[in-house]
Amino acid sequence: MSQEDLKDELQEQFNDVLTGLQSKDLFQSNWDIASFAVFFIFIGMVLLLVILVLIRCFCCCCCDEKPRRHKVGIDNMALDP
User: Fold this and answer.
1) How far is residue 77's CA from residue 71's CA, in Å, rounded to a whole number?
2) Along the 81 residues of the chain, how does pLDDT read in single tens digits?
3) N or C: which end of the chain has fewer CB within 10 A?
4) Residue 53 C-beta-side C-alpha neighbours within 13 Å
5) CA-CA distances (angstroms) from residue 11 to 4, 6, 8, 15, 16?
6) Sign, CA torsion 53/58/64/70
7) Spacing of C-alpha 20 from chain mean position
8) Would you say 27 and 36 are in contact if contact means Cβ atoms under 8 Å apart?
9) Are residues 33 and 27 in contact, defined by beta-carbon separation less than 8 angstroms?
10) What is the spatial distance between Cα 8 and Cα 12, in angstroms, rounded to a whole number?
11) Which residues of 9-47 are buried (b: 16+ CB within 10 A; e: fewer)?
């Protein structure tokens, strides 16, 4: 591809985007809407996980006391020598 072909192709894509914005018809098919929704659900989940990690780090890491762990269940006496 020459520089002129690349420039023409980019100009054509830019004009397509501008006409889509001007006509307020951003989504041309159901697949466009579905991919847009999946993309924003993914971004939302990533942001939610980042927020949860930050909450965990800032709220729980500053405590000096160790969590109390207690034994759950019963001892299996058959395993003792």
Assistant:
1) 15
2) 678 888 889 899 888 878 877 777 767 788 888 998 999 999 999 999 999 988 888 876 666 566 667 777 787 778 776
3) C
4) 6
5) 10, 9, 5, 6, 9
6) negative
7) 27
8) yes
9) yes
10) 6
11) eeeeeeeeeeeeeeeeeeeeeeeeeeeeeeeeeeeeeee
| Alpha-carbon gap, residue 41 to 54, rounded angstroms | 20
Sequence-ordered alpha helix ranges (H) in 1-81: 3-23, 30-60
Please give the structure tokens belonging to residue 27.
Answer: 């989504």
In the numeric block, which tokens belong to residue 28? 């041309």
Q: Could you tell me the pTM of the whole model?
A: 0.47
CB–CB of 26/20 below 8 Å? yes
* Predicted pLDDT at 73: 79
